[in-house]
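[Q] Does anyone have a clean structure-token version of this?
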Amino acid sequence: MRWLVGWNTASASFGTVGAVGHRGEGRTVQPVGSQCLWGDPDPLWAVGDWRPDEIRVITVATPEGAPVTRLAVLGCCGATDEQLRVGLLAARGGALRHLTAWSGSYTAVVQIGRRITIASDLAGARPVFHTPTPWANGTAYATAALPLADLVEAQLDIGHLGALLACPETPEALGDGTPYTGVKRVPPGHALILREGSREITGYEAVASLAVAAPETDPVSAVDGVRDALVDAVRARLTAPRHAPENLPPDPGPVPGMGPAERRAARGAPVPGIGADLSGGSASATLALLAAGLPGLPGTVLGHGTGAGERLLAVTFNDLSAQGREDELERARVIAANPRLHHVVVAAGEEALPYASLESGPLTDEPAPSLVVAERHRRRLAAGSADHFVGTGARQVLDAHPARLADLLLDRRRRHLLRPVAALARAEGSSTNSLFVPLAVYRAARRLARTSYRTGLETAASLLPEANRDTPDLDTPADASLASLAWSRPGPAARWLTGEALAEVSVRLQAAAIRPTSVQRPGEARARAALARHAADQRILEQAAEIRSQRLHAPFLDNQVVRAARALPESLRVQPGARAAILRRVLAGAGIHDLPPGWGAPSQASATAAGRIGLRTALPDLIALFDAPLLADAGLIEARVVRKALRAASEGEPLPLDGLAELAATELWLRRLVTRRGSCWTGTAAPRQRAVAGGVVPARRTLQA
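[A] Here you go.
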């Protein structure tokens, strides 16, 4: 786990200039295993196994006595030093957007005198957190919430955990909170500005008008923008220095039935070089083909994406316990037949199912559903490279959220609803209900388009307390789309929460409804919330399935790719198969035309089947997990109800498996947190307690520190 942390205090004389921590009465506080980027009075540290090329500090020469002006960029950034210097000068004048316009995935921190500016990304994969410091009326900031909770000895925020389970894709319910009381999150697309301890959060993206419809972007130029952004994102990773795994255990020698790659994966170390997932889907295949350079990316060595003579390691995960992936695996095999790809198939059975090895795994920054599939992904990534591309985020960035149909009605573009509505009717099958799907979807989209933001939230708040009683079926794509045509809807785990927990989340929504805010169109707002939720889950997955010396690269979550995708016209997004068509044109623009038949076909059924098999296999462990759950001690669930649901789902009852996964992941995270020992901080003045003390959990709904 890698993060950065710093603070800004009210007094310029607080501490000693050049020191590496908080000084008070001769005592020092600093992060464990930290690297100081600059010192007091507003220090900044990088913590974790950062590579040397992932930390860049640019300082602009200023006249003697003038405020210091410098920029720290942490992560993979494709900008040159001169471009960073220009961006720093622009940020000094207030143009914060320049800090987020470079290719790659990174966090930028600007210091201009006593003013500190740190920007979060657009997707939410690189968030920023802040909290008041317990000294000098200052503010501490970090890219992880747990270190700040350690610093201020924060308690758990049970209300936030309840909102996370009840409405995970509703920012109004979550607010700017985190699971730790007093630790706040900067929203995606915003920057945190600190001036002598005071806090200001400002957006750096332009807000579209609700009164006047923006002119529709030309589809050809919009897709070209996505192509250029993806190519730049891949190139930023390819041009970075190569890294071999550090502290690699010695090879025990030949093992019957195991080659060098299998022995390296068994030792828990990635393969040196560049690699990518190759699942057979459109997103991972696009990144693999671009990175391999078929026929080549401009500006790379000899036109080869991975360097002269270097082959891209393409990893395909083959789940032997789930059926229905034969076509997808065959597409991956056809794509990997090119000589510039070295194909590795990772086969796994029950040991890699969801819910496997729940007793092992690190403590992550926050809870997320991906905790229950961490072992599954760890096995796949162990066979990957030191720099590994993943196609996560493409669905949320490129696809149209069903609520975008209401945006089309707001813009009076009714004819563009014909194809998506017809596709939903075909997905319903030949039943009688399919005849009424077009009318039902159109009426729901029109109702959402005519519902104001405040009315929509108030309606959702009034219906939320009944979410554990009235549970509509979402078995078909039409049902799910109709449920999504609302300003807010309960999450899949809400049906198992207590009435008290749902009532508290309802109060949050009612308070948000009357709070002044910059309102977006319903489809755009719901799409951004879904992207933020997915990006947060991906961040936790990287921590839970982390392999030392390996970097996971998700270009679809980069700022420039998200911006380019937002420029796609709504009429193009909502068409069936839009994501596959866009990525096909992206590859064609890069010179890649030969794709296997069926490329871009959806493949969600196999993941659902694997989840059900994994739940059935791990049922005894899950029942034991919810025998005396901490969530029940906090008043969020009733253990008996959840155990009954687990048994019913394992027997094939059509229950939302993702809701059960969220409950299991949150309970698992809480247990890891309460058994944790140690702190993120060191020094004689370091906090002696943690966010949650180990041992016995206090009385109901407290979980005190």
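[Q] Thanks! Anything notable?
[A] The two ends are 24 Å apart (CA to CA).
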